[in-house]
Structure formats: C-alpha cells, structure tokens
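Morning run. Coffee first, then this:
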Amino acid sequence: MTRLRSPLPGLGFPYRAGTTPVGVEPAPSRRRLGADFDTDWARRPSARLARAAMVEGLMRPAVAALAAPRRRGMDRLDQLEGPVLFAANHHSHLDTPVLITSIPVRFRRELVVGAAADYFFGNHLTGALSALTIGAIPIERTKVGRRSADLAAALIDEGHSMLLYPEGGRSPDGWGQPFRGGAAYLASRCSVPVIPVHIEGTGAILPKGRSRPRPTSTTVTFGSPLAPDEGERSARFATRLEVAVAQLADEATSDWYGARRRAHAGATPSLHGPETGAWRRVWALGDRSTRRRRTRRSWPEL
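And here it is:
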C-alpha cells in the first residue's frame, strides 16, 4: 500500500487534503477565478430575465441621463440576423452600458460581452455581478487563450452574439490603441460577420482614472458587416477592422460624405493620434476631451 504523506508536518488528513499517491497523475487544479470563472448560470432563463429587467429598468434610464446617445448606422444592420460579433473601440466603463442599450433587441436578447478575465473576474463578487448584469464572459486579453476562445466559440455556435473590445482595455489618454486579433480570430473560426462600432464621447463622461461621471452627449455609429477573406490571417483582418472603426470615428466627428472621400483616398485619420508627447496628444483631442452637453433634456430619450 502506498503511504500518503501530509503536505505539512504534523498536520494531516482530514485537516488538509491528502496528497496524490506516487505513480498516479495528479488531477488538474480547478481554478474558479479569471478565465475559469463559471458563467453558465448567468445564461439560464431566470438570470436572463433578471438581466433584461435591469437593462430596461435601470441601465437604459441611467444611460439616457448620462450619455444621451445618438445612434447612427442602424440601417446597416437591417438585413442581418444573429449571431454576429460587435467590435468596438473602448474609452470608458460606460461603453458597455451605452452599447448594450444601443444594439438592436434581436441581438441583445442573446448578447454576451467579452470582459477582461483578470479585471472583471478577479474575485467572486465582481465576477458574479459582471456575469449577471451585462452577460459578461471572461476573455484573456494578453493572448488568445484556448479556454476563452473555446468558450466564446461555443456560445457563438449556440446562437449568441458577442460584444468585444479588440483594444483589450480602456484608452489611457483618449486615443485608440492597436487592435488585437481576438475578434478577427473568432470571426474566422465561427464564420460569423463582424460589425465595426465606434462610440464617441464616453471618455469625456467617465475616462480611465475618474470615479465621478460628467454628463455629456455621445454618438454610437454602427458600420457595415465585415467578413474575413479566404485564407486571410487574423492579424490582417484585425487591421481591417481597426481601419473600419477609424472610418466610423471620422464619420461621427465630421460628415458621412467627407469621411467616405477620405476613406477612398486612404486618408482616414488614425485612431491612435499623433506620435508625439503626452501634452500634444491631449491638445490634439480638442473638443472631444472637454466638451459638455450644453442643453438639458426635460425627458431623456429612452
């Protein structure tokens, strides 16, 4: 008989779990946080009903009061049915509530949100709240992790649409960051279209590092669906997605015709801002970083 050794001298079973016998392969450790956080319960009917009530009863009025979003490009989604991927730029924690309340209801019913596993699922409380209130699932943002990718792909195959932020995190200074390949990889793997989305103004309401929101107006612009070309690598498709979102940013801050002309000429302004000092980057944002909503509505647009 193989003798089991206590992990601590003088303190054995039942105070501590027994060790694995010699010659037996240890069972894989079961982590419960981060990428391994269980969110299956949050997609059960009772949880989905509670989430819908929170979105319509709490989230929508709060978004209307804080952000008063103008929604553009909705007609570009008219012929689409789920599942689809929504790929958006990311400036603020307010982005997700604004987008959830802006995405058409036929996608919203089955929507899940890819959230940073290390940030939103670092402890049980924030993980449970994120899964319940916004339908979040853990996504590893530093790499395309197998567990995250398999979970996302399985949900898409089941008919869920997904909201992802290809930048991997909020903007530190109001300008965009390079897109990573997660959304592009999932689109190729699951053969679903990607809807580029640009959200403007949330960085002025609640930027990274601020705890108190400052109400102003926002604009959500939906683009035309994109799909990877035959044999196209994820990195190249991610670059195309970034360019598409940059074109929507140009459209939101100027006009459709001018933005299309610049896109045709390859002169669309980059999401990344000027390659210069920090103060010049802040100055180059102009009114985008300082504007306030000048008029107050008597009744928020719900």
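The radius of gyration is 22 Å. Good start to the day.
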